[in-house]
Design brief:
Blueprint: E1 13-14, E2 18-26, E3 30-37, E4 42-49, H1 51-54, H2 57-71, E5 81-87, E6 90-96, E7 100-102, H3 103-110, H4 115-134, E8 147-150, E9 155-157, H5 162-169, H6 184-187, H7 194-210, H8 220-229, H9 244-253, H10 265-278, H11 281-284, H12 367-373, H13 381-399, H14 411-437, E10 443-445, H15 454-463, E11 468-473, E12 483-487, E13 493-495, E14 500-505, E15 510-512, H16 521-530, E16 534-541, E17 551-555, E18 561-563, E19 567-573, E20 578-580, H17 589-598, E21 602-605, E22 620-624, E23 629-631, E24 635-640, E25 646-649, H18 657-666, E26 670-675, E27 684-688, E28 692-695, E29 699-704
Parallel strand pairs: 11-14, 16-19, 21-24, 26-29
Antiparallel strand pairs: 1-2, 2-3, 3-4, 4-6, 5-6, 7-8, 8-9, 10-13, 12-14, 15-18, 17-19, 20-23, 22-24, 25-28, 27-29
Helix pairs in contact: 2-5, 4-7, 4-10, 7-9, 9-10
C-alpha cells in the first residue's frame, strides 16, 4: 500500500503573492506547482527549486540573470518567464501555465507516431528554438518532458535558462540534464551552442518516429558513452518504409561532429518544412509497426513470439503429375511396395499422412504400370476406368511432343541471323550511349536558381537540358515572385529526362493581427500567443479616460496582415495624470478659485463661512484636500472667513487684577497689565477698551495700582 504524503507547500502563500493550489510534477532540480497570482488573478506555473540549489547564493544570482534574460524572449512557441525571486528559504521561478500535457505523454500513449504527426509536433518546437537561437539563447535540455501541449493545441517549449544556471553553478562542471538527449560535446564537458539543441531535437524526433530512444543502457554512463562513440541509426531500420528524407533529417541533426549538423534551429526549420511540403501523403501517413513485447500479443490479439512448425507434423509431399490420390487401403489387404519420395540434400524422408510414399515420374513412363499394379484391389471399376483414361491422355501428350526439330537451319542462314542480331545490338548500344552520354539520359548538375525570376530560372534549367515545373510556396525570406529553390536541390546530379520542380515564393504567409485595444496587457499577451505573434515594445502614458493597465493602441493595427512571429508594439494606459493640489489658504476667494482652476481642478466654496481671528473676512480659511494630488477635474472645497468674532468687553475697574485678567482671557482677549507704583494693591484702576465690542483676540490693557 502506497502512503501519500501531503506536500507542505500546497495551500501556502509564496512571497505574499502566489497561492499554491496543487503539485504538478517533481524533477531533479525543482518541483512544479499550479499557483494563483493573487495580484493579477491568474494561474501560473510555480517552479520551486530544491533546497540544495536555494542555499547557493552565487547560483541564485546566476538564476536571476538567466531568468531576466529569458523573460525578454517572447515567442508563441516558448513558455514565458514571468517572475523570479526568493521567499525565506524558497527560491522560485514563475512561468506561464500551460494547461494540457507534454510530448512525453503523447509518446507514452501512442508509441511510434506517423511521420505526418511527428513532423507537425516537432515543427513549433524547432521554430521556438530558432527564435531563441537568433536571440542568443541556448536551451541545453531539450526533451519531451519540456515540450508542453496546451488543451487548445498550442505547443511550447519551456525551461529556458534553468539548465544553464544549474550547469554553471556546479563546482565539478558536471551537467545536470537528461542523458538520453545530451549532445556528445556536452557529455565531454565542452561548451554548448545552438547545434547542441539541434542534436537533442534529432534524438526526440527519432523517439517520436520509432517509439524508443536510439541509445539505452542500465546506467547513465553507458548511454553517455554511446552518444560520444556511437552513431544514431536511421529510423527506417525500425520503421520499414519510412521516407529516406526523414532518415537523412534525423541523422543530419544527430551527427557526432557539430560541424556536420544544422547551424541552428532556423536552418533546421527551413529543411524540416521543405521535407514536410515534398513528402507524399503515403509517406506522411505511413503507419509504424506496433511495438510488441516478446511473448506478448500483437494488436489483433495474436501471440507475438515466433512459432516453428515441425517438419514431422506437416511435411511437404510431391504428388505424381496427372494421377489421383489413392484412397487408404483396407487393413486386411497386403501393402504393396511403396515408392520413395525424392528428397533434397540433408532432408529426412517422412511418410505422408496416408502412410504411402510417392515418387514424381514423368507422364507415360513405365512407372505408370507399376503404379497401377500397386493400386489397391478394392479400387472400383469406375475409378479404375477414370485412372486409365487419365493415363491415356498423359501418354498422348508425351507422344505429341517431337523429339527433334524437323527444320534445322543451314549454317549460312544461322550466320546471317547472328550478323543481324549483332548489328541490332550495336545500334542499340550506340543509341544507349548517346542517350545516357549526351542525350536526355545524360547526367548533369542542377544549376543554382535561388532568388532569380521564374523566367531566368527556367532559362538556366533549359540550357542545362532539364524540364521544369513551377510550384508556389510561402517563404519568409525570399520576395514574392522570385525562386526559393528547386527539388532536387541545386548541385544535385540527375538525368536530364527527370523533372525538376521550381519553388516560386508567394512571399511570407500572412495572418491578420488580432485586436488588442481595450483589454489588459495580460489579455493582449494571450491574444498574441494564440495568433502566434510576438510582443514588441510596451510603452506607458497617462490617459484621462482609460484605467491603468488598459491597452490604448497597437502597432501594427488590428487586422493588418503579418507573418507569424511579427512583434506588435503596445501603448498601455497609466490612468489619469495626477495633479498636485495648490495651497490657497489666506488668499481672497476669487484669487483662490483662479489658482485651482488653472491647475486643472474645480473649486467648490462651502456654504457656511467661519470666524477666524487671523484670516480677514472674504479670504480662504481652509481647503479640502489641503495637499496631495487629484486627477484632472477633481474638486477642492474652500471655506471662507467671516473675519474675527466681535466680543463685548466688560468693565473690571475696581476688581483685582488677577481676577480681571483671568476673566478677559477666558473671553478670548489678550491682557496687558500696566502696574503703577509697583501695583502694590493689585486693584484695576483703569481699563482700555471697556464696555464696547472689539474683535476676538484684541489686546485689553489694565492699569493696576
Amino acid at each position: 500500500m502506497q502512503e501519500h504524503v501531503a506536500d507542505p507547500l500546497v495551500g501556502t502563500l509564496v512571497d505574499n503573492r502566489y497561492a499554491v493550489k496543487s503539485r504538478l510534477a517533481r524533477g531533479g532540480m525543482s518541483t512544479v506547482y499550479v499557483a494563483t497570482d493573487q495580484r493579477l488573478e491568474r494561474d501560473v506555473a510555480l517552479k520551486v527549486l530544491h533546497p540544495h540549489l536555494s542555499a547557493d547564493e552565487s547560483f541564485l544570482g546566476r538564476l536571476g540573470r538567466e531568468a531576466k534574460a529569458a523573460a525578454r524572449l517572447s515567442h508563441p512557441h516558448v513558455v514565458g518567464v514571468l517572475d523570479q525571486g526568493t521567499d525565506a528559504h524558497t527560491a522560485y521561478l514563475v512561468m506561464e501555465y500551460i494547461k494540457g500535457h507534454t510530448l512525453r505523454d503523447v509518446i507514452k500513449a501512442k508509441g511510434a507516431l506517423p511521420p505526418r504527426l511527428a513532423l507537425a509536433l516537432i515543427d513549433p518546437v524547432v521554430e521556438g528554438l530558432g527564435a531563441a537561437h537568433a536571440a542568443g539563447f541556448i536551451h541545453r535540455d531539450v526533451k519531451p518532458e519540456n515540450v508542453l501541449i496546451a488543451e487548445d493545441g498550442r505547443i511550447k517549449i519551456g525551461d529556458f535558462g534553468l539548465a544553464r544556471a544549474v550547469t554553471t553553478s556546479t563546482s565539478t562542471g558536471a551537467l545536470l540534464g537528461t542523458v538520453a538527449y545530451l549532445s556528445p560535446e556536452l557529455v565531454l564537458g565542452k561548451s554548448a551552442d545552438a547545434r547542441s539543441d539541434v542534436y537533442s531535437v534529432g534524438i526526440v524526433l527519432y523517439e517520436m518516429l520509432t517509439g524508443q530512444q536510439p541509445f539505452t543502457g542500465e546506467v547513465p554512463i553507458q548511454v553517455a558513452y554511446q552518444h560520444v562513440n556511437g552513431t544514431v541509426g536511421p529510423p527506417s531500420a525500425l520503421v520499414p518504409g519510412l521516407a529516406a528524407e526523414v532518415d537523412e533529417l534525423v541523422q543530419w541533426c544527430t551527427a557526432n561532429d557539430p560541424e556536420n549538423r544544422p547551424i541552428d534551429g532556423n536552418a533546421l526549420l527551413q529543411e524540416l518544412r521543405h521535407i514536410r511540403t515534398n513528402l507524399s501523403d503515403r509517406e506522411l501517413d505511413l503507419q509504424p509497426p506496433a511495438a510488441v513485447e516478446p511473448g506478448g500479443q500483437d494488436p489483433a490479439g495474436n501471440p507475438s513470439h515466433t512459432e516453428v512448425i515441425a517438419r514431422t507434423n506437416n511435411p511437404t509431399s510431391v504428388m505424381p503429375f496427372g494421377r489421383p490420390a489413392a484412397p487408404p487401403r483396407h487393413p486386411q489387404q497386403p501393402q504393396p511396395q511403396q515408392p520413395q519420395v525424392d528428397q533434397g540434400p540433408g532432408e529426412e524422408a517422412h511418410p505422408p499422412a496416408s502412410g504411402l510414399r510417392y515418387k514424381l515420374t514423368p507422364p507415360g513412363s513405365d512407372d505408370d504400370a507399376r503404379w497401377a499394379a500397386a493400386a489397391p484391389a478394392t479400387l472400383s471399376k469406375r475409378a479404375q476406368r477414370k485412372a486409365d483414361k487419365e493415363n491415356e491422355k498423359a501418354r498422348a501428350r508425351a507422344a505429341a511432343t517431337p523429339a527433334r526439330n524437323l527444320r534445322e537451319g543451314s549454317p549460312r542462314r544461322r550466320g546471317v541471323l547472328w550478323v543481324v542480331i549483332l548489328l541490332i545490338a550495336a545500334l542499340l548500344a550506340t543509341g544507349a550511349g548517346w542517350f545516357f552520354g549526351m542525350g536526355p539520359g545524360s547526367a548533369a548538375a542542377i544549376p543554382a536558381v535561388a532568388n532569380k525570376t521564374v523566367a531566368q530560372a527556367q532559362e538556366l534549367l533549359s540550357q542545362a537540358g532539364f524540364r521544369s515545373t513551377t510550384r508556389d510556396v510561402f517563404d519568409d525570406d525570399v520576395p514574392s515572385g522570385l525562386v526559393v529553390g528547386t527539388e532536387p536541390p541545386a548541385g544535385s546530379e540527375i538525368r536530364k529526362f527527370q523533372p525538376v520542380s521550381v519553388f516560386v515564393s508567394k512571399g511570407p504567409q500572412l495572418f491578420p493581427l488580432p485586436g488588442l485595444t481595450g483589454g489588459t496587457l495580460e489579455e493582449a499577451k494571450i491574444g498574441l500567443n494564440r495568433a502566434e505573434m510576438a510582443l514588441g515594445t510596451v510603452t506607458e502614458r497617462f490617459d484621462e479616460a482609460a484605467a491603468a493597465g488598459v491597452v490604448l493602441s497597437q502597432d501594427p493595427a488590428a487586422g493588418t496582415p503579418a507573418r507569424h512571429g511579427t512583434p506588435v508594439n503596445l501603448v498601455i494606459s497609466k490612468g489619469p495624470e495626477p495633479i498636485p493640489v495648490p495651497n490657497v489658504v489666506g488668499q481672497e476667494e476669487d484669487d483662490a478659485k483662479d489658482a485651482i482652476e488653472a491647475a486643472g481642478l474645480q473649486a467648490d466654496v462651502a456654504s457656511e463661512e467661519v470666524f477666524d481671528r487671523n484670516i480677514p473676512e472674504g479670504a480662504v480659511v481652509s481647503q479640502t484636500p489641503a495637499n496631495g494630488t487629484l486627477t484632472r477635474g477633481g474638486t477642492v472645497t474652500l471655506t471662507i472667513s467671516k473675519g474675527p468674532r466681535m466680543v463685548e468687553v466688560p468693565s473690571y475697574i475696581g476688581k483685582q487684577a488677577a481676577e480681571a485678567k483671568r476673566a478677559l482671557e477666558g473671553l478670548g482677549f489678550q491682557v496687558r497689565v500696566n502696574n503703577i507704583l509697583g501695583g502694590f494693591f493689585g486693584t484695576v484702576r483703569d481699563q482700555d477698551p471697556v464696555d464696547t465690542e472689539v474683535p476676538e483676540g484684541s489686546v485689553i490693557t489694565l492699569t493696576v495700582v
